[in-house]
Amino acid sequence: MKLSVSTRAAATGVVAMATLLAGGSLADAASAPPRAAAAPDIPVANVKAHLTQLQSIATANGGNRAHGRPGYKASLDYVKAKLDAAGYTTTVQQFTASGRTGYNLIADWPGGDTNQVVMAGAHLDSVSSGPGINDNGSGSAAVLETALAVARAQYRPTKHVRFAWWGAEELGLVGSRYYVNQLTTGDRSRIDGYLNFDMIGSPNPGYFVYDDDPAIEKTFKNYFAGLGVPTEIETEGDGRSDHAPFKSAGVPVGGLFTGASRTKTAAQAQKWGGTAGTAFDRCYHSSCDTTANINDTALNRNSDAIAHAVWELSA
């Protein structure tokens, strides 16, 4: 679903007003050095098509895509094939957890200053009790489609852009922690920011922004403000997803979340719509976390926000 022209114009107006409030003028803005092209719209239909594939993989492999199970490796192979075809340099990183082999997938877009790396990632594994389409097919699919949008645009950012899909998150952030622990001190210092996306299509959604790195937080908040969508600070998953190992290593982090097992309040329902007194995701970690467990509007808005942040922070 594309944003309407009026919505795009409103977002542009917010940026222009910010320039004036900062003491500048529209003439100043016009004479400033040209910025990189704005991020493209991320077609929600494409994101949903990836979710359909992940659902089919789970269905064909015992109903899940969990660590050490065939469904996880098939999910990784699907994502890797898309990235390889788009021109990414992909690396599969292997580790062991709970006696089973796990995998991370890292994809680097050619070019950009490798001393300034912007990363976006999501965990690709599900729990063993279900296919994990919101948790976390939603984040995985949106990050994948953003990566493919980079390739379609032949984007040439100033900074180096890297994407990642983590294994064994559901066992305690095992894959992302392994990745961070393998980095040298120099490698860690070269990561300007890590953006994490874990559950961004909850069926009774909220719009939560991580309050970690101020610059990343502001990037997301400004984007949603331009859409007229209020946000709240994310607290339910604080420290419980793949940004935590990066944050512990001193890497600036941020991200988005639409809620899990916590209950939506009356005030939140008034602000965002949906049903008060019901969980943001009633199928969290359950067999009903299927393609029917996705709110298309939330998935669309968050997918576009991911692309906006990748473009804005890497320009």
Structural key phrases:
globular; 315 residues; alpha/beta; 11 helices
Overall number of strands: 8
* Low-pLDDT runs: 1-35
What's the oligomerization state?
A: single chain
- Helix-residue proportion: 40-55%
User: How many individual helices?
Assistant: 11
Give the structural class: alpha/beta
Question: How does this model look, in words?
Answer:
With 315 residues, the chain is α/β, with parallel strands linked by helices. The chain has helices spanning 5-21, 26-31, 44-60, 70-86, 133-153, 174-182, 185-189, 214-227, 243-248, 266-272, 296-314, and strands at 89-97, 100-108, 113-123, 159-166, 191-197, 208-209, 232-233, 253-257. An 8-stranded mixed β-sheet has the order 1-2-4-3-5-8-6-7, sandwiched between helices. α8 links the parallel β6 (208-209) and β7. The two termini are 25 Å apart. Residues 1-35 have low confidence and may be disordered.
